[in-house]
Amino acid sequence: MIREKSTIEKRYLVQFNDLLYKLSPENLNCDGELSYTEAKKSYDKLIKIWKRLEKKVGRLVSEDEIWELVCEGNYDKYKNCS
């Protein structure tokens, strides 16, 4: 069952944010050092982790939502988001 949009616990927010960093094109492809196949394997693994986290929070979570939460400054680790 998917719940309505609600606040994400800090521990999950940190994990989602770390995944966003790893999913960025320059990190996912190691600045062009990885082959398409290697990058695809990494992407698939990271998306699988993302979906597991969504199950833990009980709903779908978008990249935009994570950016908004991180940049709001409500979480100590991310107060200096720009």
Radius of gyration: 14 Å
* Run of helices and strands: HHHH
- The SS-based structural class is mainly alpha
Largest sheet: none
Work out the number of β strands: 0
Uncertain runs are none
Beta fraction of the residues? Answer: under 5%
Distance from first to last alpha carbon:
34 Å
Mean of all residue-level pLDDT scores: 84
Helix content: 55-70%
Helical stretch count? 4
Query: Which term fits the overall shape?
Result: globular
How many separate domains? 1
Question: What can you see in these coordinates?
Answer:
The protein is mostly helical and 82 residues long. The protein has one domain. Helix content is 61%, strand content 0%. Helix 1 packs antiparallel against helix 3 (36-57) and helix 1 crosses helix 4 (63-72).
Give the SSE map.
Elements: H1 10-23, H2 25-28, H3 36-57, H4 63-72
